[in-house]
Structures are given as C-alpha cells and as structure tokens.
Amino acid sequence: MKSARPFRWFTVASFLSLVVLPLGMVTAAEGKPAAKPDATAIKQLIDELGADEFSAREAATEQLARIGLPAYKAVEDAVQHPDREVRYRAERILGRIRQLDLQRRLDSFLRGSEESDDYTLPGWARFKKVYGDDTHSRAVFVDLTKADAELLQAIENSPKAAADVAATRVTQYQQLAQMQQFGGNAGLQLNFGQIATLLFVAGEEDVTLNQQSSQAVFNFCNQQGMADAISNGSRREIPRQMLVRVIVRSEDWAAYQAMSLARRFSMKEGLIPAEKILKGNRQPHMAYYALATIAAMGNDSHIPLVEKLLTDQNVVTQMHEKDKVIYKIEVRDAALATALFLTKQDLKSYFPVREGQTVGDPQQVLTNPRIIGFAEEAKRAETFKKWAEYRAKNPGAAPAKEDGAKNDGKEAPAGDTAAKEAAAKAEADVATAAVAKEAAAKAEAAKKEAAAKKGAAPAVPMNAVPRTR
After folding, report:
1. What DSSP line would sit under 263-326, residue for residue?
2. What single-letter DSSP state applies at residue 404?
C-alpha cells in the first residue's frame, strides 16, 4: 500500500495560470513530441502520476505532455482516477496538450497548410465569409482565437450561445476593471484580440447583444490597443470593417457611442444610426448628437431630413447668466445650425457669436447656448426668417418622403417649404410670447394693486380703543 502523501492545494490564480497560459508563451521549451508509444507505455506513465517519489511524478507528467494527442484519451480518462494527485496532474497535462495542439494548428493555419485531419477552427467559416481568406485575415483570426476561443466556439454553436457568452465576458471584464481600480491601479486594458472577438460576434447579423453589452463593446473600442489597430495598424482594414458592422446596427444609447466612435475614426457609416434617430421617435439629447454627427460628416443631401426638425421646440440645454437671462437651445436651433454647416454658411451671419468664439466643431457649437441659444423669441424669429430667405433663393432638394409613404402623384413641395414653415412657427412663437408676457404683466400689476389695497386699510382711531381698568 502506498504511503500517504500530503496533497498540495494551489490557488485558483495559480491553476488558471497553468491552464489558460497565453498561446504565445508556449515555446519550444516544451520539446518536440516523443515517438508514438503504445497503449501499455501510456498506461504505465498514467500510473506513474501517482508515484510516491516527486521526481517520478514530474517525469511522467512531462513525458505525457510531450506525447501529446496520442495520450489525450488516456489522460482524459485519468481525470476520473480515484487518486486525486493523478486527477490533478491529468488536468494539467490536458491543458498543456490542448495548448500545444492548438498552437500547432494555428501555425499551420497561418501558413495555409492545415492538415486534412485537422478540424476547422471554430468561427472561421463565418469570419472568412465576411473578411476574406488571405494572410491578413488569417493573422487577425489567430489573434481572436488566442484571445477568446470559448466565444468563437459559442458563435460556432449558435447565435444565442454567442450572445450569452459575450454578455458573460463583458461582465467579467467590467468586474476585473473595478477590482483593479479598487486596488489603486489603472483601468483594465484589454488587448486587440479580446476586443476584436467581441466586435466580430456583435457584428454578426443573427447575433443580438443586449444594450449593456453593446455599450461596453463600444467603450472597449476606445482603449489604446483597439484604437491603434483601427487607425494605424498594418491590418487596419479588418478591425475597421468589424467596427463598421456594429455601428450600422446600433440602437438607442449604443447608437450614441457608435456615432462618437464613427466621428473619432472618420467613418461615414456613423450617419446611418444618426439618420435612424432623426427619422424615429427621438429624444432631444439623442437628436442633438445625431445632428452633430450629420453636421460633421453629412452633406447637403441631408438638409431635407434636418429641416423636418426646424419646428421642434424641445429643449436640448439652457444656461442662466448673471443678469438672470436664460439662453435656451431647442432642437430646432440645433437643426438650423446643422443646416448652416451643411450649406457651408457662416454661423456668425445668423447667430450672435461672441468675438474670439470658435465655431468649427459642430459638437461644441450645438451644445453652447451662448452661440446658438436664444433668450428672446423675437431674435429666434429673425434668425429663422433669414434661413427662409436663403432657402427661397436656394431651394435645393425637396423634402424626402417618409419610408413607406405612398406616391400620390402630386408634385413634391419646394425645398424651401420647411424653412417657410419654421419661420412662420418662430413668428407665431413671438406673438405667443408677447401675449404671455402681457398676461404676466397684468397678473403682476393686479398682485401689486391687491397688496397696496391691503396695506392702505384705514387704521382704528386711538380714542376708539376701549381703556382697560
């Protein structure tokens, strides 16, 4: 009977460092595979995993790892061995065999010389259908496989499985980031492969990520590793294409981040979510950012779409000055400023821009009440009237019909129709504001009159007050 041996427990971190060692760190130190042994020799080595002598156990572990795939089945069975030392070592050996075999297959894959008995790498069929099969695409796919083979296996299994694993991975990355920040370290920096694998999955048309996951993926794209790959890398076209596929599918808050990235990396595809927002049930803050995107990357073909917002009075932002004057930016003001960018007109000829104020960046302009905000409706009406006059002289394209609208055979309205309607609306608002101001003044006067009457009530004469005894 074998003598009892104390079993040495390892921490979870130590175990993971052995099992999920990055493929790039598996080197020739592992040695070349040994000559193919027979089943008897493999069984004997399995038994040696539980030997009393540490050196014997270590030697058997190394030999089985070098044998590789021929020993895989026997080692896999040893994971169920009654001796927990054997079980533990068998699990370690399986991890090394998998890593070495995967590295071998990836090397062959990069050379384009896969062996006939090698199974296709999970996710490759989908990947090459979109991004092609050449040296660059294979190199990128190897980065993905090294970074997150589990997620690639999930997309191979089903779109639903891929969405679930992607959500789990996002949560794991976010938790790691929080742990690092809690420990006083810099934020978590993911490598290119980790982010690109998420992008690849998120860009597949049959995969639907939840909003939280979509937003996180866009956030990850701002990290240095991915930003460099998109902007300057020798293989930049594939990561750019990956990001584009996700941008055009973005909705709601994820669309906000999509447009931000599109502007950062000069991707015209950012116009697609911007157009969807302006055509849909938009919120003021989302409309503003969509307008900023169109102002930065659009052209005069977007004017009809933008002009549909020239009567939208929802407030985007406002500012209080010391003299208690309130400057407000409404959606229609941002839309007008966008139209000026698209028609390459000078904002200073429409808005009271202060001396030295820069107006080149649409995002800064569209949120600055001191540039395009109004404190008086009369000033707004004058500005919109000027736009209407410009459009009367430069009608341009007629407003596009909404999707699904029927062609009734009638001639489309002139391109200046929306401008005229906006100017009329602004004029009406002046009248409304005047009526409201007059009503407020009357109410204030009545209030003062009532207060005066109350304060002027006749006093009781002193001799009318009865004396107390």
Report:
1. HHTT-GGGHHHHHHHHHSS--HHHHHHHHHHHHHH--GGGHHHHHTTTT---EEEEEE-TTS-E
2. T
pLDDT tens figures, 86-116: 999 989 988 888 788 778 888 888 887 666 5
C-alpha angle 8-14-17 in degrees, rounded to nearest 5 = 140
pTM of the predicted structure, to 2 decimals: 0.70
324 in the same domain as 218: no
- Residue 328: helix, strand or coil by DSSP? strand
For 390-425, what is each residue's pLDDT tens digit?
A: 999 988 755 445 444 444 444 444 456 666 666 565
Do 107 and 169 reside in the same domain of the chain?
no
Cα gap 239→224, rounded to integer Å: 13
Tokens 């109410």 label which residue? 443
Are the C-beta atoms of 214 and 254 separated by less than 8 Å? yes
Closest by alpha carbon to 199, among 176, 225, 234?
225
Residues 65 and 145 in one domain: no
Token reading at 257:
């981040």
Q: In terms of residue numbers, what domain contains 308?
A: 298-399+416-435
User: Is the same domain home to 204 and 329?
Assistant: no
Alpha-carbon distance of 129 to 81, in angstroms, equals: 44
State how many domains the chain has.
3
Helices (H), 49-184: 54-67, 72-78, 84-111, 124-131, 135-157, 159-182
How far is Cα 247 from Cα 309, in angstroms, rounded to an integer?
24
Residue type for position 17: S
Task: Specify if 334 maps to a domain.
Answer: yes
Ordered DSSP codes for 421-438:
HHHHHHHHHHHHHHHHHH
